[in-house]
């Protein structure tokens, strides 16, 4: 069956559907409340005559619609409903004619209506878990029926979480947004396009009235999103950036996603090729691996909740949305969201959307578990590849008929039907069969799915995209250059934790970000000219026919030929301190903990680890790496690490070397903060911790504020920020102070004092701490000498001026001659050993002299380097 046979649960809305997802998934349904209608007659009139009301409760039928009315600003409502008894099967209508038929004749849309049975209690205290309830024999009574006290407790818990984690400043101080221009409106919220004042990022701003916080759907989604946020997030999950309390409303800042739902893509473009589909489901599976690993089940996975970042198939990536039905199935005592007493979560039964739910959920014989999501993904994959639903091939079945087939052990999905699935590869059929195994215990897990050869792209065909494999073959001419550029970009981006790209890095996978960096035309494809960086005339001489193009699926496959995708479970130890290491890793998603010398540091999506062993002469690991969450990483072998370094500029090697030094230096600072006997001292603005000439045997660790280190009558050498140290010169050398330390923060400064004898004991006990802190001391002395010679603040914005000041004879490098002259100009007692130490501290390549690029990287470089100085 070709791609013109399409599922149409939510048809294209006559060209009016242009809303970005402001967690507007399923017509702006996320994080909403439940509003009781006043009477059944009014409800019936609204359903038959009015714009689609998604988000009201029918008292007569005891059903709840979990959604909102959605419309565009200044236009007619997006959704108009037909009869209120419209079955789910009508939403699963198969469009059998040409592609044009899929986008015409849809002036009225069939709004999806997700209805669930609710207990006969106060509608304002609706219990979603109870709505998913099973017979009392299967459920604890307290979960089956939620009384007003339980509802009140849950509401207060959610509000406490919102209050605890809210951003303290006002939303207007951080975002530009026009309150008169909504991009979407629901029954309980208004959605706006907003722009961050800090970095220009476009976000969705959702304003929700506090009077709707009684909704358990609201509470469920807020708690789930706060939990995901607390755990670090995932690039393929819609993320809550931050939230504010604004008078009578809560304001949520969410991802701004313009590509729409996967379902819309199916309608507009037809069924996917296996290669494209494998990438899409790989991204969904990665998100599910993360969710399941932190104890969450999505529980309502379907094409409407799988969003794509662009309308182009070539470069769109997945964002899984809508956590209003998410279920906690595990316990994590490290979170504020789940319980702290290691209590087993109460089981939850049911099927929010039966057409995408497994038999055990529809029958309510088993509680909701991660295996439910895997079945749902199997259904989605079947639809993506065939264009029809496995339990409603004709698109004309009633809801009851669909559920009956799901429940029946006799019905077999048409995976072997030649008309429907004859074009599928054996590997694709094998995957679908294993995902849709009726036994949840035998169903593939997310981790197992990610190991499947079809998901890894090894066996997926490219049949629907004609010529894709030939284009990919031609593009392999540029494979090494693509991979080297990805490697270089990923290294450099990891050092941008404080710049304008920080938020984008956190919410975008490295592969997506790298592909978009190549895609100069922003059309969803990478051309030869994007890789070569030359004009099209030159490319035609290099590549026959003017050069091939690739999409993001091709790009990921090219990278994976030498960069291995690795998936690790939470708690897994990737390597231990002292191990021999021959690979480094880029973090695509998840968080790892770095453990060394009694310290712990966390690295998250977009960062890398393991490079230290590849830079070490004996390949020794300097720390232990443990997964805090499920992790997806790209593994780079030492062989390709060395190839990428050799093919890149020398600046990349310097970046890696300096990054390794920074990490060791930060580890040493952490150890200092762990020492006993620290004493707190506070200073008001413009006061000094010490002045030049003082005799002191104390160093300081700044806790709050900003301290400027000054010489030559107030000339600034560097600034100290919280977490950094100052005053180490006198403690290490035993000499009097050779600078002033001035608090320059309006709110004052707070620092911890460490006595010199304790500091020296620490240096004697740890070679790594001694090496890192002595190197820091010598670099700072070099900068002081530069400032003393220039009689002006250190020129961070003009590093060439600083280099020229040290290289007075213009030899083009810093060697023992000009460095010793500089240092002894500041301090005649500076020893030859100390001069050699300065050169060693700046010489990242080990050549014996310092180039301008080395000095720039060591003393100025990126913001991390500057802050660590």
CATH superfamily of the largest domain: Jelly Rolls
As laid out across the biggest beta sheet, the strand order is: 7-8-9-11-10
Shape: globular
SS elements, strand count: 33
Uncertain segments of ≥5 residues (pLDDT<50)?
1-145, 332-342, 463-469, 497-505, 535-539, 862-869
**What is the typical, i.e. mean, pLDDT?**
77
CATH fold description of the largest domain: Jelly Rolls
The number of helices is 34
Share of helical residues: 25-40%
| CA-atom Rg in angstroms | 30 Å
- Tally of distinct domains: 5
Task: Give a brief outline of the structure.
Its cofactor is Mg(2+). With 869 residues, the chain is of the alpha+beta class. It has 34 helices and 33 strands.
Question: What topology does this entry show?
Answer:
Elements: E1 6-7, H1 25-28, E2 35-36, H2 40-49, E3 56-58, E4 63-65, H3 88-91, E5 94-95, E6 115-117, H4 128-131, H5 141-144, H6 148-165, H7 171-174, E7 175-185, E8 189-196, E9 202-209, H8 216-230, E10 240-246, E11 249-255, H9 262-269, H10 274-293, E12 296-297, E13 306-308, E14 318-320, E15 327-328, H11 359-363, H12 370-386, H13 399-407, H14 418-421, H15 426-435, H16 446-451, H17 468-475, H18 479-493, H19 502-507, H20 510-518, E16 526-527, H21 528-532, H22 536-542, E17 549-550, H23 552-560, E18 563-568, E19 573-575, E20 583-589, E21 591-596, E22 599-604, E23 608-609, H24 611-615, E24 624-627, E25 631-637, H25 638-647, H26 650-673, E26 679-683, E27 688-690, E28 698-704, E29 707-711, E30 715-720, E31 725-726, H27 728-733, E32 740-743, E33 749-755, H28 756-765, H29 767-790, H30 799-806, H31 816-826, H32 832-842, H33 852-859, H34 863-868
Parallel strand pairs: 2-3
Antiparallel strand pairs: 1-5, 3-4, 4-6, 7-8, 8-9, 9-11, 10-11, 12-15, 13-14, 16-17, 18-25, 19-24, 20-23, 20-25, 21-22, 21-24, 26-33, 27-32, 28-31, 28-33, 29-30, 29-32
């Amino acid at each position: 069956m070709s791609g013109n046979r399409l599922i149409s649960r939510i048809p294209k809305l006559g060209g009016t559907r242009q809303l970005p997802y402001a967690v507007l998934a399923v017509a702006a349904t996320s994080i909403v409340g439940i509003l009781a209608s006043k009477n059944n007659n009014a409800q019936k009139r609204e359903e038959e005559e009015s714009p689609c009301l998604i988000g009201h409760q029918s008292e007569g039928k005891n059903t709840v619609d979990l959604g909102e009315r959605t419309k565009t600003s200044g236009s007619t409502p997006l959704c108009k409903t037909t009869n209120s008894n419209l079955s789910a099967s009508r939403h699963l209508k198969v469009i059998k004619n040409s592609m044009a038929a899929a986008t015409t004749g849809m002036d009225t849309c069939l709004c999806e209506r997700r209805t669930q049975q609710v207990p006969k209690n106060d509608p304002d205290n609706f219990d979603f878990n109870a709505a998913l309830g099973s017979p009392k024999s299967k459920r604890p009574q307290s979960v089956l029926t939620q009384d007003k006290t339980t509802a009140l407790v849950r509401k207060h818990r959610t509000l406490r979480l919102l209050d605890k984690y809210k951003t303290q400043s006002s939303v207007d101080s951080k975002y530009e947004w026009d309150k008169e221009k909504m991009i979407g409106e629901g029954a309980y919220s208004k959605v706006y396009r907003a722009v961050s004042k800090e970095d220009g990022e476009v976000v969705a701003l959702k304003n929700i009235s506090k009077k709707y916080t009684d909704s358990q759907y609201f509470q469920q989604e807020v708690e789930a999103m706060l939990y995901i946020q607390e755990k670090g997030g995932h690039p393929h999950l819609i993320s809550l950036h931050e939230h504010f309390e604004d008078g009578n409303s809560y304001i949520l800042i969410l991802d701004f996603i313009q590509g729409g739902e996967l379902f819309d893509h199916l309608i507009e473009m037809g069924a996917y090729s296996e290669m494209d589909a494998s990438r899409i489901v790989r991204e969904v599976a990665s998100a599910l691996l993360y969710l399941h690993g932190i104890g969450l089940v999505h529980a309502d996975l379907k094409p409407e909740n799988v969003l794509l970042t662009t309308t182009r198939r070539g470069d769109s990536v997945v964002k899984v949305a809508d956590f209003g039905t998410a279920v906690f199935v595990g316990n994590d005592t490290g979170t504020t969201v789940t319980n702290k007493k290691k209590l087993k979560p109460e089981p939850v039964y049911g099927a929010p959307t039966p057409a995408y739910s497994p038999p055990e959920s529809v029958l309510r014989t088993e509680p909701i578990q991660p295996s439910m999501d895997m079945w749902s993904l199997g259904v989605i994959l079947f639809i993506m590849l065939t264009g029809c639903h496995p339990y409603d091939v004709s698109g004309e079945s009633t809801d009851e008929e669909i559920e009956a087939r799901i429940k029946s052990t006799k019905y077999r999905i048409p995976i072997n039907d030649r008309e429907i699935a004859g074009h599928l590869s054996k590997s694709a059929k094998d995957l679908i069969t294993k995902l849709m195994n009726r036994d949840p215990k035998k169903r593939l897990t997310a981790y197992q799915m990610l190991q499947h050869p079809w998901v890894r792209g090894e066996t997926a065909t490219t049949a629907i995209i004609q010529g894709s494999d030939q284009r990919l073959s031609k593009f392999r001419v540029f494979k090494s250059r693509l991979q080297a550029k990805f490697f270089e970009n990923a290294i450099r981006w990891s050092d941008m934790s404080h710049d304008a790209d920080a938020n984008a890095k956190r919410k975008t996978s490295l592969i997506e970000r790298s592909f978009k960096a190549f895609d100069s035309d922003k059309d969803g494809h990478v051309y030869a000219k994007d890789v070569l960086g030359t004009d099209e005339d030159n490319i035609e001489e290099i590549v026959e026919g003017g050069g091939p193009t690739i999409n993001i699926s091709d790009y990921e496959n090219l990278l994976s030929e030498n960069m291995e995708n690795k998936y690790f479970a939470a708690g897994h130890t990737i390597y231990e301190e002292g191990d021999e290491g021959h690979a480094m890793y880029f973090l695509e998603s998840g968080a790892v903990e770095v453990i060394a010398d009694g310290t712990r540091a966390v690295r998250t999506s977009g960062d890398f680890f393991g490079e230290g062993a590849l830079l070490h002469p004996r390949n020794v690991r300097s720390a232990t790496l443990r997964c805090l969450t499920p992790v997806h990483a790209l593994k780079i072998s030492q062989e390709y690490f060395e190839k990428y370094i050799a093919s890149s500029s020398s600046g990349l090697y310097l970046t890696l070397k300096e990054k390794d030094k920074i990490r060791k230096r930060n580890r040493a600072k952490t150890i200092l903060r762990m020492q006993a006997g620290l004493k707190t001292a506070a200073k008001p603005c413009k006061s000094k911790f010490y002045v030049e000439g003082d005799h002191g045997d104390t160093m300081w660790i700044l806790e709050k504020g900003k301290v400027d280190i000054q010489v030559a009558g107030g000339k600034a050498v560097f600034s100290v920020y919280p977490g950094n140290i100052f005053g180490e010169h006198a403690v290490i050398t035993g000499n009097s102070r050779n600078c002033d330390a001035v608090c320059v923060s309006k709110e004052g400064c707070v620092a911890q004092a460490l006595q010199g004898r304790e500091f020296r004991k620490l240096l004697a006990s740890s070679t790594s701490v001694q090496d890192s802190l002595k190197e820091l001391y010598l670099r700072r002395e070099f900068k002081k000498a530069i400032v003393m010679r220039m009689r002006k603040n250190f020129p961070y914005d003009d590093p060439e001026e600083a280099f020229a000041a040290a290289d007075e004879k213009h030899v083009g490098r810093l060697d023992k001659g000009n460095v010793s002259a500089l240092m002894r100009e500041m301090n005649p007692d500076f020893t030859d050993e100390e001069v050699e130490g300065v050169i060693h501290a700046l010489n990242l390549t080990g050549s014996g002299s310092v180039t301008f690029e080395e000095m720039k990287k060591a003393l100025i470089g990126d913001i991390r380097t500057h802050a660590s100085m």
